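Hi everyone, sorry if this is the wrong subforum. Our group has a chain we'd like a structural model of before ordering constructs, and none of us has done structure prediction before. Sequence below.
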Amino acid sequence: MNAFLYRYGSICEPDILDSFQRIGLTVIEEKTEITEKNISNARRVQLVEKGIREHHPLFVFSINFYPAIAEICQIYQTPYFCWTVDSPVPELFSESIRRSTNRIFLFDHAQYTQFAPYNPECIFHLPLASAVERFDRVIRTISDTDHRQFTKDITFVGSLYNEKSPLTDLRRAGRLSQRARGYLDALEESALKIYGCNFIEAALADDIVQEIKASAPLFYDPGKSVAASETYVAAHSFVGMEVAMKERILTLQTLAKYFPVDLYTKSDTAVLFPKASASNSSTVNDRTPGSTMEMDHASVHKPVICENLHVHGGVASLTEMPKLFHLSKINLNMTIKPIQEGLPLRIFDILGCGGFCMTNYQPELSELFEIGRDLEAYASLEELVDKCSYYLQHEEVRQKIAQNGYKKVCERHTYLHRIKEMLQKATE
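Answer:
Right subforum, don't worry. Here is the predicted structure as tokens:
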């Protein structure tokens, strides 16, 4: 039996391909879009149609939802399986979501709640997964040099989102009114203080949404849609990304007041090093590291000169990142606001590498893991600082939690688990 895998270069694709093969499927790969990033919908349809006609697959699969693929699969009555790994995915507003041949799997339960009513028999909730066996192969090769290079106290791997926030560009270009700027500043500051609940979409005024839409040349338009998408796009593709940027900057600066922090990113990191006066700045030398009793929580949100923040370039995802996660004492995850309830791939990556994961609280966290046993979570910057202090001082407790998290993903949350669950749900 054949499965047709439409690829665009997602890091998840090889692990999904491997899982399909392990359950006995022959996988035909269409890889044109990996190198041709500006491919048209017409070309995409042509490629998928060719694959269906030549290989007669049991189903077509892609990461995230492509309306054009849904349409051609409907014509040929070939099931279209897709699995979201990102948020937002505004393509889900397309009328194509209603096609009877769709089998759409959404990793964030908030996505599922929002879009399942438009095709309830064909849309499912499916959390993300861990590539444990692939990580194990890399971790077995850890050398003394790797220990020296990757053993860190607190590590964060990821984008700062300053290159992914179109709202920043609108502000810089002066395209927003004074009222809109003030409104959005207040909304973003409020969102930064709340963990586990995203109220941005509900709080956005209609006139602010329309101003963002009118000011942004690339504001997404799904065409024929199942519902109005403007507020969703403004809230998640614009405001949500801006909040993600601000949260990451603030969190890293805050931790660097107290502890050594190592950042691995391809983003421009100049925003992390503001020119603050000596009277407003503080560094790790101002207080006793690792002592929660000495921490001034009132100073958490003040500017800081990040002398304790060590910036590295990007880390190789396949060959270096598993080693870094395994050897770092604390691996930090910061879930972006557009992921409203679900867990990002980074949590599964860290745990699958046997690393200790410290993540912001998300509603689905306690459904898949036990907080304090498999990983740790925080609901404020103050709590994050306190918990980092505790776990840096209690190595045995920290290592036990990392072991439990690794065991949990091995037993319940691998790609093979998810693919089997996907096929079961799709055929019930």
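For your construct planning: The radius of gyration is 22 Å. The chain is about 45% helix and 10% strand.
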